[in-house]
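The step that takes the researchers longest sounds almost clerical: writing a folded protein down as plain text. The outcome of that step, for a single protein, is printed below.
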Amino acid sequence: MRFENENHATAYEDVKLYLGELFDEEAYNEDDEGHFYVRYGSTVMEISVDLYGPEEVLVMVMAYCVQGVDVDEDLLLGMLELNHTLPFGAFSLVGTDVFFSYSIFGRTLERSNLLNAIAAVATISDDYDDRIVEKYGGERALDRIRYTGGRKRREEALHA
């Protein structure tokens, strides 16, 4: 992982430390990009630490909500309406995958702020993933990981 400045490195190390304290089981998996992956209930989340301007750092907590939805106007309008009413965070659509994310500043990150962000993202994602699958198809992210064996198993299959 390459850090752009001291704030970036410090925030990354803080997130790594806090995740180790917050989760009993092996809480995360770092990849070359410096992202962490955690499971909270039935929600799979990616936590990234990125620069925001010259000195600030953002910690983004993103839930893989539903993969492979049938995209239509009702889904898009529904997510926009939810984004308007939710107190923080936002739903997004990339291709046919629905995500929910929330960003917090990382330069002054505290353990409780990270825990609150993780809990909020997981709760909202978990509240809506079954509803989205029921109405628009697709699979909850955790179901998809169980079906495919997860990232490690897919990588092993690629290199076999």
